[in-house]
Amino acid sequence: MTNSDQNLVEVANFRTKVEAETAAGLLLAEDIPYLIQSREGAQLGPGPAGSSIMVRAEDAERARQVLTDAGALGGES
Fold first, then answer.
1. List of domains in the chain
2. Is the separation of the CB atoms in 66 and 25 below 8 Å?
């Protein structure tokens, strides 16, 4: 993905960037472009940390299905 990509949507949220990167490998195998948006290291106090996988809106349904079929979502999206 490039910085000019627009209409990105979140398809999954993970506790750590490593978990997000592992799940993103499933999307890579299916040729679905993605962006990982990480909040790790940006926290100064209590609050939600973690990482999200973002994809183009037109790829969102397929991306969610790939992650669901692989058991990577665990009920969160």
1. 8-69 (3.30.70.790)
2. no
DSSP bridge partners of 56:
8
How many whole angstroms separate alpha carbon 68 and alpha carbon 77?
A: 9
Q: How far apart are CA 65 and CA 35, in angstroms?
A: 17
Cα–Cα distance, 54 to 46 (Å, whole number): 24
Instruction: Return the structure tokens found at 7.
Output: 């209409």
Contact 23, 36 (CB under 8 A): no
pLDDT digit string (tens) for the chain, length 77 residues: 555 557 999 999 999 999 999 999 999 999 999 999 988 665 555 556 689 999 999 999 999 999 999 999 865 44
